[in-house]
Model the fold of this input.
Amino acid sequence: MQGQDIALLLKLAIQDEPLIQSKSLAEGLSISQSEVSKALKRCADAGLVYVAGAEKRVNRSALMEFLSHGLKYVFPPARGSMVRGVPTAAAAEPLKSRLLEDKEPPAVWPYAEGKVRGISLAPLYQGAPKAALRDSKLYSVLALCDAIRSGRTRERNLAVELLGKEINA
Done:
């Protein structure tokens, strides 16, 4: 699996409509159509998505199981130095308003157009910051995934709970 596979599954899971074209997914995720096709194949092989033409249905229970128990091991957090970027994990909504602010610099995805300085946290895939800034719902679920990957126990547990509500809504 690759990080963009997780983003694709999340994008599909938060969609209201199961009929979505690969071209729309590619544009929404800031990846190419061929990458969408490869990601769908990998996810189908893993039993995380069912694809029939334009219909793409996510196996939500399997996805939640993977996210809550395997995400931090398959995609361990890669932290870096202070950079300008887009807030993520506990520094972004929906966690930011639910947790007390600590004295640590926020976790950010490195992005030249970002407005916050913080500690670099590598996103699940390269296009995540750009895609997240265009789609607030995708941004929140990607940030929750980063909290699962990099957060402390309380942050991870809250992120799993909130992500479950978003995915199963």
Notes: The radius of gyration is 15 Å. The first strand starts at residue 49 and ends at 52. The first helix runs from residue 3 to 14.
